[in-house]
Design goal:
The complex is a heterodimer of chains A (406) and B (286). Mean pLDDT of chain A is 82; it is low at 188-192 and 200-215. In chain A, helix 1 (6-30) packs parallel to helix 6 and helix 5 (82-104) runs antiparallel to helix 7. Chain A contains 20 helices and 2 strands. Chain A has 406 residues and is mostly helical. Chain A has helices spanning 6-30, 38-51, 66-71, 74-77, 82-104, 109-120, 123-130, 135-150, 154-167, 175-181, 217-224, 227-265, 277-282, 290-311, 315-328, 338-342, 345-348, 356-384, 389-394, 396-405; strands spanning 187-188, 192-193. Chain B has helices spanning 2-18, 34-41, 47-56, 122-130, 249-274, 279-285; strands at residues 24-26, 71-81, 86-97, 103-113, 118-119, 136-141, 155-162, 168-172, 175-186, 196-201, 205-212, 220-223, 226-227, 237-242. Mean pLDDT of chain B is 75; it is low at 1-30 and 279-286. The chains are: A mainly alpha (406), B alpha+beta (286). The interface between A and B is large, with 49 and 48 residues. Chain A: Keywords: Endoplasmic reticulum, Glycosyltransferase, GPI-anchor biosynthesis, Membrane, Transferase, Transmembrane, Transmembrane helix.
């Protein structure tokens, strides 16, 4: 029995988000602790600088694309909450896109709606958007790229991919699986890659095509440089480079250093979810040796390759596992990074054989417990001075293991 | 040992001279800030340079008309409020102004030279300024909020308070008391074997800028009020901040990388066995 459709879930979520934004306004004016994310204030300051013709990078700690500041210019003209509405709209779009992708993969409607609810009613995600974090926009762009690929619109997918990599660098890790999924063996008419369709649990899943024809070096090489792949590479590369050149022309090295290079070289010695943080802090008085840098980079690199190699044919699943692996072994992890894979989780949930009761519930509780446990030590260290760094550090390894085992 | 000292000196040199961006974030730039003049002359905040600057380079010349000991002050109370890495430095300063001091308008200028390892967030102060908690307030020096203390320079906060204002309590016509609570944050400190490092706060530097009747053109005069040491009750303020232990370096390095590598291997194996690629079959064939 269908209790509600996707539109009523979206409407409820929209009303709820508007109420949260209004509540945030009230809390900001009446309480010392703000509801608004501190990054939102950074974006807003950068936007107001841009509105007055200045560089957004004059706002220290603004380390994003100038496009973000541009999107938030109405913050200083219309209302300071403009950006929150924009990010929450992105948040709702993610919900809608989850539904679209699952419908295209022939997932039954009730499962589609449950999956949409996993995103829209997740306390973690609805607070991220309404507090003014830009991640929902990035998530919406990534899901839209998947939709474009599924509909065979490689050109549009490439346009958005170039843009999203410019906007936030981390989706660069999705380049290889996207290129692989554009394999002519899996692409049917109209450059439409076949993805795994849903089938009832217990039945064998309908994997796409099996390769039966003989395969030699020439066909392999010819297979690598297909029209779709070349177009995707060229278009996305052109969009990324055009954005970079354009903003370099406007804001010069400041842009390149703050919005791009900073993220590639970032090692944060302050406590965060990363297993590397304490090691970075303990060694921050001297330069890391090449060997140390290599050891910390290798797990991320190897995992990306292995995951792509193993799961590239199921693009949403591959992107999800890639994101989890990328975040888990990153040198800096903040809570907002979790949103990156939360948006991909509903895309793989209908295929899970795990029952919510009790296996699923155990996983959710274990994950939450690990994060809360870590946060407790973080809180004691930062707000009470009572927890030594070592405790904080030792809690990160179980948290990481749980994160991975889920 | 020698390498370590060389390294520290090199870092200090780079910080003070090479980067040369000792920034200042002025919440409201209408007033003339003392620390702005200081940082125009010096790259870093160093106590000896500051004392020299106050003694020889501040424009005291216009203040000859000032009645001797016209304004006396004493630090009544000074303490750190709160716990953890985010605290408030609360100061209560009492002033005694002689009745014969002919001023139209006065403002008290407080300069808090923050010790290394502690910083004030200029954007937080801006927020408090907008909410009317502070009047004119600015942070000078290294305002990069993210750097650990050994990679950052010291900074100073300059607060301007009108003698009639919300932070000021008039005890009687000639006595007034100023109360301020400055939000401060701890940086990540250099490693210490005890697991804690202590930073020490000095006394604030106080100045007065007054519009004096007796001068020919009602000039604005900047001067240092006399400190009433007998009445000052403030002692040294210490802030014990957690820091990393050098002894942990080896263990943490090994544990971090063993767990990273072993979990990576586990995921690699799990991925290979869970994917459609039939490794067992391939292995048998080979």
């Amino acid at each position: 029995m269908k209790l509600f459709d996707v539109w009523s879930v979206l409407l409820f979520s929209a009303i709820f988000r508007v109420l949260l934004i209004l509540y945030g306004e009230w809390q900001d004016t009446h309480m010392e602790v703000r509801y608004t994310d501190v990054d939102y204030l950074v974006f807003s300051d950068a936007a107001s600088l841009m509105a007055s013709g200045d560089s957004p990078f004059k706002r220290t700690t603004y380390r994003y694309s100038p496009l973000l500041a541009f999107l938030l210019i109405p913050n200083s003209i219309v209302h300071r909450s403009w950006g929150k509405f924009l990010f929450s709209a992105g948040d709702l779009l993610v919900g809608l896109f989850i539904h679209t992708i699952l419908k295209q993969r022939k997932v039954p409607e009730d499962l589609c709606i449950y999956s949409v609810m996993v995103w829209l009613l997740n306390p973690f995600t609805f607070t991220i958007g309404t507090r003014g974090n830009c991640e929902p926009i990035v998530c919406a762009m990534i899901l839209w790229i998947i939709i474009c690929l599924m509909s065979g619109n490689v050109f549009q997918a490439a346009l958005w991919y170039g843009l999203v990599v410019h906007f936030r660098i981390y989706p660069i890790v999705y380049a290889l699986p996207i290129i692989l999924v554009l394999d002519p063996r899996f692409v049917r008419s109209g450059l439409k890659p076949l993805l795994l369709n849903w089938s009832a649990l217990g039945k064998a899943p309908q994997r796409s095509t099996k390769v039966t024809h003989p395969y030699n070096v020439w066909t392999a090489l010819r297979g690598i440089f297909t029209r779709g792949r070349i177009m995707f590479g060229l278009v996305s590369g052109t969009v990324f480079l055009s954005c970079t050149v354009f903003f370099f022309y406007l804001y010069e090295w400041e842009f390149l250093h703050e919005a791009l290079l900073y993220h590639l070289t970032r090692t944060d010695p302050r406590h965060n979810f990363s297993i590397y943080f304490y090691n970075i802090y303990l060694h921050s008085e001297h330069e890391f040796s090449l060997m140390e840098k290599l050891i910390s980079f290798l797990p991320q690199f190897i995992l990306q390759l292995v995951v792509i190699f193993c799961f590239a044919q199921d693009l949403p699943f591959c992107l999800f596992v890639q994101t989890v692996a990328f975040i888990t072994f990153n040198k800096v992890i903040t809570a907002q990074y979790f949103v990156w894979f939360f948006s991909l989780l509903p895309l793989i949930l209908p295929w899970t054989k795990m029952k919510l009761k009790w296996e699923g519930l155990c996983c959710i509780l274990l994950w939450m417990g690990a994060q809360i446990h870590w946060l407790m030590w973080g809180y004691l260290l930062e707000f009470k001075d009572t927890a030594p760094y070592f405790n904080n550090k030792s809690m990160q390894i179980p948290a990481m293991l749980i994160n991975l085992s889920e | 040992m020698g390498t370590s000292i060389y390294h520290k000196l090199r870092v200090l040199f780079i910080l003070c001279f090479a980067t040369g961006f000792s920034s200042s974030i002025v919440v409201q730039s209408l007033k003339q800030y003392i620390m702005k003049s200081y940082f125009e002359k010096y790259e870093c905040l160093i106590d000896s340079n500051f004392q020299h600057f106050i003694a020889h380079q501040l424009p005291y010349a216009l203040c000859e008309v000032v009645v001797p000991n016209a304004v006396r002050f004493s630090v009544l109370k000074r303490r750190l409020i709160g716990e953890g890495s985010h605290r408030h430095l609360s100061s209560s300063i009492g002033f005694h102004i002689k009745p014969e001091f002919p001023f139209h308008f006065c403002e008290v200028v407080i300069v808090e030279r923050l010790p290394s390892g502690v910083f004030a967030d200029p954007f937080e102060l801006q927020h408090l300024h907008r909410r009317g908690v502070f009047g004119d307030i600015a942070v000078f020096g290294d305002t990069n909020l993210e750097l650990p203390s050994f990679l950052s320079n010291r900074s100073a906060v300059e607060i301007h308070i009108d003698v009639v204002g919300s932070n000021v309590v008039l005890r009687d016509e000639n006595e007034l008391e100023i109360n301020i609570e400055l939000p401060l944050h701890a940086r990540y400190l250099p490693l210490d074997d005890s697991g804690y490092s202590t930073v020490e706060f000095g006394d604030p530097d106080l100045f007065m800028r007054c519009n004096i009747e007796a001068t020919l053109t009602n000039q604005v005069c900047l001067f240092t009020p006399t400190r009433d040491r007998a009445e000052s009750k403030a002692g040294t303020i210490m802030w014990k901040i957690p820091s990393g232990k050098k002894a942990h370096s080896g263990v943490v390095f090994i544990v971090t990388f063993i767990s990273a590598i072993s979990t990576t291997l586990l995921i690699v194996l799990a991925s290979l066995f869970c994917s459609d690629i039939d490794i067992r079959k391939d292995l048998k064939k080979s």
